[in-house]
Structure formats: C-alpha cells, structure tokens
Design goal:
Layout: E1 6-7, E2 28-35, E3 43-50, E4 60-65, H1 78-81, E5 88-93, H2 111-125, E6 131-136, H3 138-148, E7 157-160, H4 173-183, H5 187-190, H6 213-220, H7 231-245, H8 247-251, E8 257-262, H9 270-283, E9 288-293, H10 305-319
Parallel strand pairs: 4-5, 4-6, 6-7, 7-8, 8-9
Antiparallel strand pairs: 1-2, 2-3, 3-5
Helix pairs in contact: 2-3, 3-7, 4-7
Length: 320
C-alpha cells in the first residue's frame, strides 16, 4: 500500500480531539489513502491493521461498505469492537460522490458504478484472499447488487438496515417511481435534488437514526455534508432494488446472508427487507438469517451501547 496518509488517530464520538488511539483501538491503526482507477473518480479508502502489520501479512479481511452520506471515520470503532484477530484486515472507503472521494456530489447514474468501485478496491487491496462483507443501508443494496453481478465474491454478507425499499415519505413509492423514472433520464433534471434524505436536520429528540445522543451529534457533524438525494440517484436506486429482487438473479445467489434491523426502523422501509427475505427463501439455496434488535433505530453500529453490542455479538456469531 502506498501510504500517502497514515493516521494513528481517528475522529470518533469519544475521540473528538483526535487523540492517539493505540489504547482505544486495541493496538490497531488506520492507513488512509487514495486509489485512482483507470476509469472513474479517485476513491479515498482506509485499512485498519494491527500496529506494525501490512495488508500482505493479513490472511483474510472484513470489508465494510458504508451507506449514503457516510465516510470512513464514522465506523472507525467497528474493527476494534469486533475484536478482530491480528491476521484480519478491515477495509472500507468513501463512495464516489461522497466523503472525500472524487466524483459528482450526491449523484450516480447506476449502481454498476458503485459495484465496479467495490470490485476495483477489493481486487487491489485484498487480491485473492478470502473476505466477508458487512454493509449498512445503501451499502447493503450495493453489496447485494455487486455480489449478484459477480463483481465481488465474498464468503458471506452481513447487511445492516439494508436499503431494499425506499420510504414512502415525503412521496409515496407509487408516485416516486414514475417521477424518478422520467426525471432520472432527463440530463437537466436528474441532478436536481428531490429534497428527500435529510435525516440530520432536526434535533436529537425524535430523530430516525439513533437513540444515542453523542453518536447522533457525531453523525450530524459530518465533515462531508451531502445534501438531499437527486432524481438520478433515485432512479438508479429503484433499478438496483428491482435487480436484487429479480427471481432469476436470486437463483444465482449462493452467498450466506445475515440481515440485521432495528424494530424502530424509519429510514428505509422494513417491508422491503421482509419481501426480499421471502423471495430469497423461494429462489435461492443460500443460507439467509434475519435478526431484529428490539428498540434499535436505523444506525445499528451507531446506537446506544446495549443495541450496538447486540449487533456486534450477532455479527461475531455469524462470521465465526
């Protein structure tokens, strides 16, 4: 890895001053740098490794695919709390158009771009070593899309609050789909914000993301604000949801999947998750597990300790 940037400290809710994280991260540090594919924008990615370790010394990896509006440092605590062995690397990145990666902000023409970025980074860093993917929200849809397309080949998928149906607010899906289908094809309109997706504008009380005040403030202080979703992104998301629900695509699915959601989910439509699980049960031979964390909201990895630890325990049990 070309270490253009090495960080012994990361910004987390309990680390606002960016203090040295050697003790807080259980002997792990972060290498954060950029990758410039031959096609597409430059991508900022990060690898969490034991201090003194290199990617070449790792025998396997956990790959974390984050969601819309998210960035590397938001999940800096996850590899530590998973208590990863010293031969396991943790890889994540900022999607094109968000975080500190290149690309047009908040815009995507199709999920093939997200999937190709995933393939490229995984191939570059992990090469042919085994890996498991953990993905949150929009990342869950990307992970399924890329896996079904054969662009990535994880040993297993863990999907946290996956985006498998868009919420009916502010516009019900019956109207949002045809609107996005039309406007998402018009160059002048596809880059116009729909006004949806602003989940951090309000106060902590009643927010849909997390019941942990400190983590909500940390998410709200995103150093890479994105703005509302654009009609081009909406159309691409509807298309990707249709793709991963297609019975013919599900028949090719052989990767074991664990899906985790909170019982107080208000960001994605949970009926989409239930529908996908039923279709997967009907059309794939892959092992599908489903757990609901009662009381938790959308951000399972940014929740209060009780809910968060439950999510971590379920992930550990599954990947072990």
């Amino acid at each position: 890895m070309n270490n253009n940037e090495f960080e012994n400290s990361v910004q987390t809710p309990g680390n606002a001053a960016g203090v040295n994280t050697e003790k807080k991260t259980g002997g792990r540090g972060w290498q954060i740098t950029r990758l410039s594919p031959s096609k597409g924008p430059s991508l900022r990615y990060g690898v969490s490794l034991p201090y003194g370790g290199t990617t070449e010394q790792m025998s396997r990896f956990l790959v974390f695919i984050n969601g819309r509006t998210e960035w590397i440092e938001k999940y800096a605590h996850v590899p530590v709390d998973l208590q990863l062995e010293d031969d396991i690397g943790f890889l994540t990145w900022d999607h094109r158009g968000q975080g500190a990666s290149g690309g047009e902000r908040a815009f995507i023409e199709d999920y093939d771009s997200y999937s190709e970025d995933s393939r490229h980074i995984i191939h570059k860093i992990i090469k042919k070593k085994p890996y498991i993917v953990i993905a949150h929200s929009m990342g869950g849809l990307i992970a399924l899309h890329a896996t079904m397309k054969g662009m990535i080949k994880p040993d297993a998928l863990v999907l946290s609050s996956p985006l498998l149906r868009l919420p009916d607010k502010p516009v019900p899906e019956i109207f949002a789909r045809p609107i996005a289908n039309v406007l998402g094809r018009i160059p002048a309109a596809m880059r116009v914000s729909s006004g949806a997706g602003a989940f951090t504008k309000g106060p902590f009380e009643g927010n849909a993301l997390t019941s942990d005040h400190d983590r909500y403030e940390f998410i709200k202080a995103n150093p890479y604000p994105l703005g509302g979703v654009k009609f081009g992104w909406l159309k691409a998301t509807f298309d990707a949801i249709d793709f991963v629900n297609d019975p013919e695509n599900l028949k090719k699915m052989i990767t074991p999947v664990l899906i985790l959601t909170g019982s107080d989910e208000r960001v994605v439509d949970p009926t989409g998750i239930q529908s996908w699980i039923q279709k997967a049960a009907d059309h794939t031979k892959a092992k599908i597990e489903f757990d609901v964390i009662h009381g938790a909201r959308h951000e399972l990895f940014s929740e209060t300790p009780a809910y968060y630890q439950k999510a971590i325990d379920l992930v550990r049990q599954f990947i072990d």
